[in-house]
Structure formats: structure tokens, C-alpha cells
Design brief:
Elements lengths: L1 E12 L6 E2 L19 E10 L3 E6 L10 E5 L2 E3 L9 E2 L7 E4 L6 E13 L6 E2 L1 H5 L2 E12 L8 E4 L12 E9 L3 E7 L8 E5 L3 H4 L2 H9 L4 E5 L7 E5 L6 E11 L6
Antiparallel strand pairs: 1-9, 2-8, 3-6, 3-7, 3-9, 4-5, 4-8, 10-16, 11-18, 12-17, 13-16, 13-18, 14-15, 14-17
């Protein structure tokens, strides 16, 4: 068992001004994963995407406000993480979170959630704090992946991290500090053996100042290890995942990576 940072998403068609429930897309769930009630989990990220301005809302009966829950009215386009904290809204095991949006009457609108588990059964994610890697970072470099969203809005689609090129060093640890997108998408994530095959990600913004150190910044903001580390021995099943409110959106995702001098341990 171990820590887990998991990104889930979904989209709904033509909600208009009516507050409409969003179904979780393929590769996601809005049900809180099961964990020991003595441990903690929290909702730490929430984003919305849509061509028209609208709201995004998450609530369930165990929230401090179980009617409006966590709600934001946002501008058009892909909006970044909106949740302030810590402290964050705590989650109860196996609760079904209700995720809702408004938006346009002729479009897909979607929501992106990030949840953090202090101790999730079955998880062995390699997540670290900036201090864990600062002393063993040889270089900070970039790794570009030519990725695309699913043909079904709200679903994740994987692209192998080596799809465009592979200049990585053999059997080396790479820490993903953040990422940059050249096209806006609802969400970008990373998955593979080193993330226990969960999606670890955030909103697919095109402003590099908001995402180039996304995971490092999230670690500092939450006080929890959020920087995913993968070893290049596992690059054959390490993916960049993309989800969007439009079908098959093509996007170049630039990973901002710290190349580590040796394997980082928990």
C-alpha cells in the first residue's frame, strides 16, 4: 500500500444552462476508491473544459456542503485547478461523488478531478517531494510526445512516451516536474507500472507558467509527494494520456523532466 494521486475525467453533451450530471469516461471513476477509514483521502484538483462558459460542481452527502459542494462558475475554454487549500475536502471510502456541469447547447463540456490518497490498497506509486530529488538531479530536460485524445469525448487515450522519439538513458530514473501543451485539452496524465497504472495528471493548459512545474508546485501546495518518477526500463509501457471535450484532439505534450543520477527511493 502507498500514496496515490489519481486524475479522473468525464464529459457530457449539450448541457446548456441546466446543471447536468457528468458520467465518468473510460479509464475513470467518480466513485472514491476503497481505503481504510483510518487513512485519509481528499479532493485536491478540479478543472472544467468547454467552448462556452459554465459551472463545474462536485458534491456528495458527506461533503461539508452537501448541496452545492465544491462549485465554480468559469469562463470558456479549459480552466486550471480551481480548488484552494490545504485543507481540502476529505473523502469517504466508496462514496459516489456527483459531478455536474453547465455549458453550451451544442457542445461537449467536461470535468477533471484529482484525488489524493495517503494510503491506497494496491497502490505502489512512485511519488516524491521536490526535496527528494533536488540533490540527485543531473539535468532538467524536456521530452516531447505527439499525443491525441480519444475519439470519444471524456475518455482517456494513451500514447506511448516513446511515440515521437526516445533519447532516454537506459535504466535511469526520470522525475516529471510538469508538462506543457501546444493545444488546450481537458486533461493530461501519465500512467504505467511506476504509477500503479493509474492516471497521474492535471488540466491541459497551454500556458507554460501554469503547468511546466505542475507536480512540483502541487507537492509544495499540498505538502504531499506529487512528483511522479518513472524508470526508463519501464518506458515500453509508460504512457501519456489525454482526455478532451472534442474528439481526437492532437496535442504535443512536452514533459519537463529531472534526470536523476541514481534511483530515488521512498
Amino acid at each position: 500500500m502507498g500514496v496515490a494521486l489519481i486524475c479522473d475525467a468525464g464529459a457530457v453533451t449539450n448541457p446548456g444552462a441546466v446543471i447536468t450530471a457528468v458520467p465518468a469516461g473510460a479509464g475513470s471513476t467518480f466513485t472514491v476508491r476503497n481505503f481504510n477509514i483510518s487513512d485519509k483521502a481528499a479532493l485536491i484538483g478540479l478543472a472544467r473544459g468547454g467552448a462556452t462558459k459554465g459551472l463545474v460542481r462536485v458534491h456528495d452527502p458527506n461533503f461539508s456542503d452537501n448541496v452545492q459542494g465544491v462549485r465554480y462558475d468559469l469562463a470558456a475554454g479549459v480552466q486550471g485547478d480551481t480548488i484552494a487549500g490545504p485543507p481540502y475536502q476529505n473523502l469517504v471510502p466508496q462514496d459516489d461523488m456527483i459531478v455536474e456541469v453547465t455549458g453550451g447547447a451544442a457542445e461537449y463540456d467536461g470535468a477533471l478531478l484529482s484525488t489524493y490518497y495517503d494510503n491506497l490498497p494496491g497502490s505502489n506509486m512512485r511519488l516524491h517531494m521536490p526535496g527528494d530529488i533536488s540533490g540527485i538531479t543531473q539535468y532538467v530536460n524536456t521530452w516531447v510526445v505527439d499525443a491525441a485524445a480519444s475519439a470519444t469525448e471524456g475518455n482517456w487515450a494513451n500514447t506511448l512516451v516513446t511515440a515521437l522519439y526516445d533519447e532516454s538513458r537506459a535504466n535511469q530514473d526520470y522525475a516529471i516536474l510538469g508538462y506543457v501543451c501546444d493545444t488546450p485539452v481537458l486533461g493530461v496524465a501519465f500512467n504505467g507500472a511506476d504509477t500503479s497504472n493509474y492516471n497521474v495528471g492535471g488540466p491541459g493548459l497551454t500556458n507554460p507558467f501554469e503547468t511546466k512545474s505542475y507536480f512540483a508546485d502541487l507537492s509544495l501546495r499540498t505538502g504531499k509527494p506529487c512528483i511522479p518518477v518513472f524508470n526508463t526500463a519501464n518506458k515500453g509501457n509508460f504512457n501519456v494520456a489525454v482526455v478532451d471535450v472534442a474528439a481526437s484532439t492532437a496535442v504535443h505534450v512536452t514533459l519537463v523532466v529531472a534526470i536523476l543520477s541514481h534511483t530515488v527511493t521512498p
